[in-house]
Specification:
Distance between the termini: 46 Å
Helix content: 40-55%
Number of strands: 12
Structural class: alpha/beta
Radius of gyration: 19 Å
Shape: globular
Strand content: 5-15%
Largest sheet: 6 strands, parallel
Order of helices and strands: EHEHEHHEHEEHEEEHEEHEHH
Length: about 325
């Protein structure tokens, strides 16, 4: 019997993995396999910053495999304001998860990193060899250093004990169960929520910035399939970028246009160019992923976005929307 524990199992990626495990045909490449038990836990079940609670959680479920998604995350402003909290809380979470997995003799742990671990000044495209080549951007150095340390810990556990611990680096993830709170949401869910409110209130849909920056967006359900593949087939300690190709970058304007179309918004729609654009582009290479996984079809951006908008509209009252 394999027991797969998914920390952060009630968030965007955890919910997507649960959806894929429940909907893909049993025994298929990404479906649930005979003899597998999947457990999805959120912070209400255990505070993973706490050593004792973490130990009890692992002793309760006795996982053989772990997909570690739990983290203290937030938008740019809160990252800048609370650098120590983001550093310390994430170090504690990661250390408790990895150490308990080690003590229990887990067969594999995959931790989720982020492209923000990369140096601020780096040659593009990003790839798996460039994580530690310089300082991360100052705005989120607490979070970025805590996530970088997971890669360091994975190597140390492997070197000293032979543990099969690795990590994944997704690009910009979006999908059902995302965080749509305008104070802290990432760009796509923020655009969806803004457009939804503009349509509901009969006000203009105003997008901050010029709309020119480019991003690689990955649908949470595609990312879920990749995590399941990694769990079964990827046994290298080196991190793996999980992303669509560099040729599939989407401009913020294209993304906003797609949101307007999916929401059937017909009101005034404009860009506020007095607002900052942020980084123009930070492309990541998925060559290593494609060389290993073989045949994998990403959901087209427009289709994934339509499905997410539909979910958001149907679940607005229960979604993570903050205070509009």
């Amino acid at each position: 019997m394999s027991v797969i524990l998914v920390t952060g199992g009630t968030g965007l990626v955890g919910k997507a993995i649960e959806y894929i495990i429940e909907t893909e045909p049993e025994g298929s490449r990404f479906g649930k396999r005979p003899g597998e038990k999947w457990i999805f836990i959120g912070s209400s079940e255990a505070d993973l910053r706490n050593q004792e609670q973490s130990k009890k959680l692992f002793e309760k479920y006795k996982p053989t495999h772990v997909i570690h998604l739990a983290a203290l995350v937030g938008g740019l402003f809160i990252n800048m304001k609370k650098k120590l909290d983001f550093l310390r809380d994430n170090i504690l979470i990661n250390d408790n998860v990895l150490h308990n997995a080690h003590l229990l003799g887990c067969k594999k742990v995959i931790s989720c990193l982020s492209t923000c671990v990369y140096p601020d000044k780096v040659e593009y495209p990003l790839d798996e060899t460039k994580i530690h080549l310089g300082q991360p951007h100052d705005s989120n150095f607490g979070y970025a250093h805590a996530k970088r340390l997971v890669d360091v810990q994975n190597h140390a556990y492997k070197d000293q004990y032979g543990d099969n611990f690795t990590s994944a680096i997704p690009t910009n993830v979006f999908g059902p169960h995302d965080n749509f709170d305008l104070e802290s949401a990432h760009v796509l869910p923020a655009l969806m929520h803004k457009c939804y409110l503009a349509k509901k209130n009969g006000t203009p849909f105003v997008v901050w910035g010029s709309g020119k920056p480019l991003r690689q967006f990955i649908y949470s359900r595609d990312l879920a399939r990749l995590f399941i593949w990694m769990l079964r087939e990827y046994d290298d300690v080196e991190p793996l970028i999980l992303s669509v190709g560099e040729d599939e970058e989407v401009s913020i304007k294209q993304a906003a246009d797609a949101v307007v179309g999916a929401m059937a918004f017909t009101g005034e729609y404009r860009f506020d160019t007095t607002k900052a654009d942020g980084q123009f582009r930070k492309p990541a290479s998925n060559k290593k992923l494609l060389s290993l996984i073989g045949d994998f079809e990403f959901t087209p951006f427009e289709k994934a976005l339509e499905e997410t908008v539909q979910w958001f509209q149907q679940n607005y009252e229960n979604a993570r929307i903050g205070k509009p």
